[in-house]
Amino acid sequence: MKVTTEHVTNKGQGTTRIPNKLGGEKSPYLLQHQYNPVDWYPWGFEAFTKAKEENKPIFLSIGYSTCHWCHQMSRESFEDEEVAIFLNKNYISIKVDKEERPDIDNVYMTICQAITGHGGWPLTIIMTPDAMPFYAATYLPKNTGYGLVGLMDLLSQIHDGWLENQDDMIETGNNISQIMKREFEGRSDKSDVTKDLVGLAVTQLKGSFDHDYGGFGNEPKFPTPHNLMFLLAYSSLEVDEKSLFMVENTLTNMYKGGIYDHIGYGFSRYSTDAKWLVPHFEKMLYDNALLAIAYLETYQHTKNPLYKAVATQILEYVRREMTDREGGFYSAQDADSEGVEGKYYVFKPEEISSVLQNDDAGFFCNYFNITKEGNFEGSSIPNRLHATELNPDNEKVSRLCNYIYRYRQNRYKLHKDDKILTSWNSLMISAYAKAAIILQCKEYADIAEWGLDFINTKLIDDDGQLYVRYREGEAANNGNLDDYAFFCQALLCVYDATFDIKYLKQAIEIADKMLLDFWDDINEGFFLTGNESEELIYHPKEVYDGATPSGNSVAGYVLQRIAYISANPKYKEYADKQLRFLAGQANNYPAGYCFAQLAFLGALYPSKEIICVVSNKDDNITTAKTVKKNPQENPEFEDLKEYMASHYNPNMIVLVKHKQNEEELLKIAEYVGDYQNIDDKTTYYICENHHCQTPVTKL
């Protein structure tokens, strides 16, 4: 690894700064710490070798570049000379970007949660030179106070303990690691997938539902869109109005609150209050991808134009602010500006008056509840909590928002984490593909295909090996389960949006590699890391659906869809095993596994398969060039596109067969060879609940 050694002059202070060992990294988070006085190392051989040679414990700090409390701990401690001197003398300090190394983060975050009962970032771990942890915490202030131990006191106590009782600390670290290894590598509980398990998840969600403002549990409240996607699917299959109410109530109230950026669009990570008013202001790509899908599918089911408007605004925000010129999507935007949380997003009435004319300024402040008193530290977070009618497509409001948006962009700087992650990009690709289907918009399909092209050219090698991240011309770190599972899902979604056989073919190739590299032959389920990945202190399996669905849940979902599409016994066998594994893990708290529950719905409720056999008479379809370019543009598909757009069915599979793709399609789904045109017309074969209807030429 090349380390930057050049001197950087800080003209404002008249000093020369020399980067530490993070200077040669690509991670925006690590680069934020390259000029700390702490002698940080990146995770790797050099740091561990030095710790062993000098017999020092390791101080491991894990975070990400848009994390408010990571910034806070950095300002208080890691930029402080006193802290740095003590760390540099007595510890080997390692910085890890959790988004670049989700495997490391998963291992040590799980340990932190097991030891302390909670987790979060920044994650603070102190461990032996062999990476065995014996202390875990999250944010720590520099000095002890307000019920929190200070970092300086902690470092001093552990240093003394290391000198006096090193063997005890090593034994503690080894014992913790062995317990975690047994607990997580040996996960083997299996269970039948039943409607009782699904019903219990719904009951638990109903029990924690906030009837006044939507969402689940107490503040802080997270969007957890996969909960809503599951409830929407359940409400459709069971005709359960209460489940649908929970979805609509939550989506509507989240839009009304300050967690939604009414000026520039997109959602923040979570709300600190029950009303969704005061967010933790950072915006994450994965939240906005999953929320776009939730709003789109709810629009498809209810036809409420509010959900369509919010979804299109989210997609516009991502296209405008989070899309790389080569087609990838950036990771996140910061909560802080100039060291102050939320400063970029809040306003005072006089600011609005300085941009808009008097009547427009008064209207705007009234519309978005921007007051002299404010609702956040003397300023106002724009919101619509007071509104009785909601119309995001209001032309006047949109025009005024554009003025304020441009003013806001020039007012303060907002840090953007511009690394491109395979897993999160795949979620965003799925969102654009869903939008292409539900809104019948070719532009969204083009963006989704562009995103797939980015992954296929920048983040995958000739052997099909995915990488975790891309930045500044470099792909790095072997892909984890999430990368493969989410990418497979994206390929299936883009196939549905385009009917291009190459995406279906690649989805199956990715599924095969996922089975080869990540499947646990002994206890079943998928490991988080693959056969070629770095060996950590234990081999983690992530099953719980947290801020994003787990790789295991999505793997179960895509295997089941591939099994339905292909009718191949191999995929049916693995899908059944995976769902039994997921059910075994979900038994303790089914509501915590809502994306896995989507896969359970696919197994328990009737599926609908539509096979479209395109007429060979159509000149448009007989031109191979046209088919390759965009088969969905063929007029023969209008009935099918309209049906897919207007009918919400979470268990629907669609295949398109025509002269140009028949050979490849038969390799994937041999049974479609028996499906032919009727009277040389495009023909639809519709099968539901394991039996097929008479073929028709119009849907």
Protein architecture, described:
The chain has 699 residues and is an alpha+beta fold. Among the domains are: 178 residues, 3-Layer(aba) Sandwich (Glutaredoxin); 200 residues, no CATH class; 85 residues, no CATH class. It is built from 25 helices and 21 strands. The strands form seven sheets. Strands 3-5-4-6-7 form a five-stranded mixed β-sheet, sandwiched between helices. Strands 19-18-20-21 form a four-stranded mixed β-sheet, covered by helices on one side. Strand 6 and strand 7 form a beta hairpin. Helix 17 packs antiparallel against helix 18. The N terminus is likely disordered.
Strand tally, please? 21
Give me the number of helical elements: 25
The assigned structural class equals alpha+beta
Summarize the amount of helix as a percent range: 40-55%
How much beta, percentage-wise? 5-15%
Low-confidence stretches: 1-15, 619-629
Rounded to an integer, what's the Rg over CA atoms?
A: 26 Å
Report the sheet with the most strands, covering strand number, pairing sense and barrel closure. 5 strands, mixed
Strand order of the largest sheet: 3-5-4-6-7
Mean pLDDT: 92
The separation of the N and C termini measures 59 Å
| Spatial shape | globular
